[in-house]
Amino acid sequence: MTDTAYETFKVAFERATYLYRLYHGLANRRKRAMRSDWAGNFCDLMHWPKVDAHSIDRIDSPDAIVVLRPSSRLTCHDFDTEYLSDLLRASLVMGVSSLDAYFHSKTLAYVVRAANRGAKMPKSLKKRTITIEHFVEGKKYERRMNVVRKAMEKSLGFQSLQQPEKIEQAVALIGVNSLWSGVAERCGTTTDILKADLSKIVKRRNQIAHEGDLSQSRKTRNHERSISPKETRDALILIRRIGGRSESEINSQL
Description:
By secondary structure, the chain is mainly alpha-helical. The chain has ten helices and two strands, in the order ααββαααααααα. The two termini are 15 Å apart.
Protein backbone atom coordinates (compact mmCIF):
# COMPACT_ATOMS: atom_id res chain seq x y z
CA MET A 1 0.00 0.00 0.00
CA THR A 2 1.45 3.36 -1.03
CA ASP A 3 2.09 5.79 1.80
CA THR A 4 -0.05 8.85 1.04
CA ALA A 5 -0.83 9.62 4.68
CA TYR A 6 0.83 13.02 4.80
CA GLU A 7 -0.83 14.08 1.56
CA THR A 8 -4.16 13.05 3.12
CA PHE A 9 -3.34 15.19 6.14
CA LYS A 10 -2.46 18.23 4.04
CA VAL A 11 -5.61 18.01 1.92
CA ALA A 12 -7.88 17.70 4.97
CA PHE A 13 -5.99 20.39 6.88
CA GLU A 14 -6.34 22.82 3.97
CA ARG A 15 -10.11 22.48 4.27
CA ALA A 16 -9.81 23.44 7.95
CA THR A 17 -7.76 26.53 7.13
CA TYR A 18 -10.22 27.45 4.36
CA LEU A 19 -13.07 27.56 6.89
CA TYR A 20 -10.94 29.75 9.15
CA ARG A 21 -10.17 32.13 6.27
CA LEU A 22 -13.83 32.19 5.29
CA TYR A 23 -14.75 33.38 8.78
CA HIS A 24 -12.38 36.34 8.47
CA GLY A 25 -13.45 36.98 4.89
CA LEU A 26 -17.15 37.27 5.79
CA ALA A 27 -17.20 38.67 9.33
CA ASN A 28 -18.95 42.06 9.23
CA ARG A 29 -16.94 44.89 10.77
CA ARG A 30 -19.29 47.67 9.68
CA LYS A 31 -20.78 49.57 12.62
CA ARG A 32 -22.58 52.37 10.80
CA ALA A 33 -25.58 52.34 8.47
CA MET A 34 -24.86 52.33 4.76
CA ARG A 35 -24.86 55.82 3.22
CA SER A 36 -27.80 56.48 0.91
CA ASP A 37 -25.62 58.10 -1.76
CA TRP A 38 -23.35 55.03 -1.86
CA ALA A 39 -26.41 52.78 -2.17
CA GLY A 40 -27.81 54.92 -4.96
CA ASN A 41 -24.53 54.96 -6.88
CA PHE A 42 -24.22 51.20 -6.52
CA CYS A 43 -27.73 50.67 -7.92
CA ASP A 44 -26.79 52.91 -10.87
CA LEU A 45 -23.66 50.82 -11.45
CA MET A 46 -25.68 47.61 -11.39
CA HIS A 47 -28.55 49.09 -13.43
CA TRP A 48 -30.94 48.33 -10.59
CA PRO A 49 -34.04 50.47 -9.99
CA LYS A 50 -33.33 53.39 -7.70
CA VAL A 51 -36.03 52.19 -5.35
CA ASP A 52 -33.78 49.22 -4.53
CA ALA A 53 -31.28 51.59 -2.90
CA HIS A 54 -33.47 51.61 0.21
CA SER A 55 -33.61 47.82 0.52
CA ILE A 56 -30.07 46.66 -0.20
CA ASP A 57 -27.61 46.02 2.58
CA ARG A 58 -23.84 46.01 2.79
CA ILE A 59 -21.29 43.96 4.70
CA ASP A 60 -17.72 45.15 5.16
CA SER A 61 -15.13 42.55 6.16
CA PRO A 62 -11.34 42.87 6.18
CA ASP A 63 -11.24 41.02 2.85
CA ALA A 64 -14.45 41.86 1.01
CA ILE A 65 -17.49 44.03 0.51
CA VAL A 66 -20.70 42.05 0.16
CA VAL A 67 -23.90 43.67 -1.07
CA LEU A 68 -27.16 41.88 -0.31
CA ARG A 69 -29.88 42.07 -2.93
CA PRO A 70 -33.28 43.49 -1.99
CA SER A 71 -34.79 40.00 -2.24
CA SER A 72 -32.05 38.35 -0.16
CA ARG A 73 -33.13 36.12 2.69
CA LEU A 74 -29.89 37.08 4.43
CA THR A 75 -29.42 40.21 6.52
CA CYS A 76 -26.27 42.02 7.58
CA HIS A 77 -26.71 40.50 11.05
CA ASP A 78 -26.18 37.03 9.58
CA PHE A 79 -22.58 38.12 9.01
CA ASP A 80 -22.00 39.16 12.62
CA THR A 81 -19.22 37.24 14.36
CA GLU A 82 -21.80 35.75 16.74
CA TYR A 83 -23.36 33.79 13.87
CA LEU A 84 -20.26 33.18 11.78
CA SER A 85 -18.51 31.62 14.78
CA ASP A 86 -19.83 28.26 13.60
CA LEU A 87 -17.21 28.50 10.84
CA LEU A 88 -14.57 28.57 13.57
CA ARG A 89 -16.14 25.50 15.15
CA ALA A 90 -16.23 23.68 11.82
CA SER A 91 -12.60 24.63 11.21
CA LEU A 92 -11.49 23.19 14.55
CA VAL A 93 -13.44 19.96 13.98
CA MET A 94 -11.95 19.55 10.49
CA GLY A 95 -8.48 20.22 11.87
CA VAL A 96 -8.78 17.35 14.35
CA SER A 97 -10.22 15.16 11.58
CA SER A 98 -7.11 15.80 9.48
CA LEU A 99 -4.96 14.25 12.23
CA ASP A 100 -7.40 11.36 12.60
CA ALA A 101 -7.23 10.65 8.86
CA TYR A 102 -3.43 10.92 8.89
CA PHE A 103 -2.82 8.40 11.66
CA HIS A 104 -5.32 5.92 10.21
CA SER A 105 -3.70 6.15 6.79
CA LYS A 106 -0.16 5.96 8.15
CA THR A 107 -0.87 2.88 10.25
CA LEU A 108 -2.59 1.00 7.44
CA ALA A 109 0.18 1.88 4.98
CA TYR A 110 2.79 -0.01 7.03
CA VAL A 111 0.90 -2.69 8.93
CA VAL A 112 1.62 -5.43 6.36
CA ARG A 113 5.33 -4.62 6.36
CA ALA A 114 5.31 -4.75 10.16
CA ALA A 115 3.55 -8.15 10.09
CA ASN A 116 6.21 -9.50 7.74
CA ARG A 117 9.01 -8.91 10.24
CA GLY A 118 8.55 -12.36 11.70
CA ALA A 119 10.25 -12.57 15.08
CA LYS A 120 10.69 -8.78 15.07
CA MET A 121 7.00 -8.12 14.58
CA PRO A 122 5.77 -5.40 17.01
CA LYS A 123 4.37 -6.98 20.18
CA SER A 124 1.07 -5.12 20.00
CA LEU A 125 0.54 -6.39 16.44
CA LYS A 126 1.32 -9.99 17.46
CA LYS A 127 -1.51 -9.85 19.98
CA ARG A 128 -4.08 -8.81 17.37
CA THR A 129 -6.45 -11.47 16.08
CA ILE A 130 -8.24 -11.91 12.77
CA THR A 131 -11.54 -13.64 12.19
CA ILE A 132 -12.05 -16.86 10.25
CA GLU A 133 -13.89 -14.72 7.73
CA HIS A 134 -10.75 -12.67 7.15
CA PHE A 135 -8.60 -15.80 6.99
CA VAL A 136 -10.81 -17.39 4.32
CA GLU A 137 -11.03 -14.10 2.45
CA GLY A 138 -7.25 -13.98 2.39
CA LYS A 139 -7.16 -16.92 0.00
CA LYS A 140 -8.61 -14.64 -2.67
CA TYR A 141 -5.67 -12.28 -2.57
CA GLU A 142 -2.60 -12.73 -4.71
CA ARG A 143 -0.70 -11.20 -1.84
CA ARG A 144 -1.97 -13.19 1.12
CA MET A 145 -0.71 -10.72 3.74
CA ASN A 146 -3.23 -8.18 2.51
CA VAL A 147 -5.66 -9.97 4.81
CA VAL A 148 -3.77 -8.36 7.70
CA ARG A 149 -4.30 -4.90 6.27
CA LYS A 150 -7.98 -5.59 5.59
CA ALA A 151 -8.48 -6.86 9.14
CA MET A 152 -6.72 -3.82 10.64
CA GLU A 153 -8.64 -1.52 8.31
CA LYS A 154 -11.90 -2.90 9.65
CA SER A 155 -10.71 -2.84 13.25
CA LEU A 156 -9.31 0.69 13.17
CA GLY A 157 -12.27 1.92 11.16
CA PHE A 158 -14.38 1.86 14.32
CA GLN A 159 -11.82 3.83 16.32
CA SER A 160 -11.12 7.53 16.34
CA LEU A 161 -7.41 8.31 16.42
CA GLN A 162 -7.56 11.69 18.11
CA GLN A 163 -6.63 11.24 21.76
CA PRO A 164 -2.84 10.95 22.29
CA GLU A 165 -3.10 7.50 23.92
CA LYS A 166 -5.18 6.05 21.07
CA ILE A 167 -2.80 7.46 18.48
CA GLU A 168 0.24 6.02 20.24
CA GLN A 169 -1.41 2.60 20.46
CA ALA A 170 -2.19 2.66 16.74
CA VAL A 171 1.30 3.54 15.53
CA ALA A 172 2.78 0.97 17.93
CA LEU A 173 1.21 -1.63 15.60
CA ILE A 174 3.74 -0.64 12.94
CA GLY A 175 6.68 -0.53 15.33
CA VAL A 176 6.70 3.16 16.28
CA ASN A 177 7.58 3.55 19.95
CA SER A 178 7.27 6.56 22.27
CA LEU A 179 5.72 8.65 19.51
CA TRP A 180 4.89 11.67 21.65
CA SER A 181 8.31 11.82 23.22
CA GLY A 182 9.87 12.12 19.78
CA VAL A 183 7.26 14.55 18.44
CA ALA A 184 7.53 16.74 21.56
CA GLU A 185 11.30 16.95 21.15
CA ARG A 186 10.87 17.98 17.51
CA CYS A 187 8.32 20.61 18.61
CA GLY A 188 10.60 21.98 21.32
CA THR A 189 8.27 21.16 24.20
CA THR A 190 7.68 18.39 26.74
CA THR A 191 5.67 15.23 26.19
CA ASP A 192 3.20 16.08 28.94
CA ILE A 193 2.54 19.59 27.64
CA LEU A 194 2.09 18.41 24.05
CA LYS A 195 -0.32 15.63 25.01
CA ALA A 196 -2.28 17.96 27.31
CA ASP A 197 -2.58 20.61 24.59
CA LEU A 198 -3.78 18.07 22.03
CA SER A 199 -6.25 16.55 24.51
CA LYS A 200 -7.67 20.02 25.16
CA ILE A 201 -8.27 20.54 21.44
CA VAL A 202 -9.88 17.12 21.11
CA LYS A 203 -12.15 17.90 24.07
CA ARG A 204 -13.31 21.09 22.31
CA ARG A 205 -13.86 19.08 19.14
CA ASN A 206 -16.07 16.63 21.05
CA GLN A 207 -18.05 19.44 22.68
CA ILE A 208 -18.80 20.83 19.22
CA ALA A 209 -19.42 17.54 17.42
CA HIS A 210 -21.34 15.70 20.14
CA GLU A 211 -22.95 18.45 22.21
CA GLY A 212 -23.64 21.14 19.62
CA ASP A 213 -21.22 23.26 21.69
CA LEU A 214 -24.04 23.91 24.14
CA SER A 215 -23.36 23.95 27.86
CA GLN A 216 -25.23 21.35 29.89
CA SER A 217 -24.48 22.75 33.34
CA ARG A 218 -27.47 23.63 35.52
CA LYS A 219 -26.90 27.40 35.43
CA THR A 220 -26.08 27.73 31.73
CA ARG A 221 -27.97 24.82 30.18
CA ASN A 222 -28.18 25.07 26.37
CA HIS A 223 -26.19 28.29 26.31
CA GLU A 224 -23.71 28.34 23.45
CA ARG A 225 -20.08 28.06 24.52
CA SER A 226 -17.93 30.87 23.21
CA ILE A 227 -15.19 30.34 20.66
CA SER A 228 -12.70 32.93 19.44
CA PRO A 229 -10.61 33.23 16.29
CA LYS A 230 -7.51 32.94 18.49
CA GLU A 231 -8.69 29.63 19.96
CA THR A 232 -9.20 28.16 16.51
CA ARG A 233 -6.00 29.66 15.11
CA ASP A 234 -3.91 28.30 18.00
CA ALA A 235 -5.51 24.86 17.58
CA LEU A 236 -4.74 24.81 13.85
CA ILE A 237 -1.14 25.88 14.43
CA LEU A 238 -0.60 23.02 16.89
CA ILE A 239 -2.36 20.50 14.65
CA ARG A 240 -0.18 21.49 11.69
CA ARG A 241 2.97 21.12 13.80
CA ILE A 242 1.88 17.74 15.14
CA GLY A 243 1.09 16.49 11.64
CA GLY A 244 4.46 17.53 10.24
CA ARG A 245 6.56 16.44 13.23
CA SER A 246 4.69 13.11 13.46
CA GLU A 247 5.49 12.39 9.82
CA SER A 248 9.19 13.01 10.49
CA GLU A 249 9.24 11.01 13.73
CA ILE A 250 7.32 8.00 12.35
CA ASN A 251 9.43 7.87 9.18
CA SER A 252 12.61 7.95 11.28
CA GLN A 253 11.49 4.78 13.08
CA LEU A 254 10.23 2.78 10.09
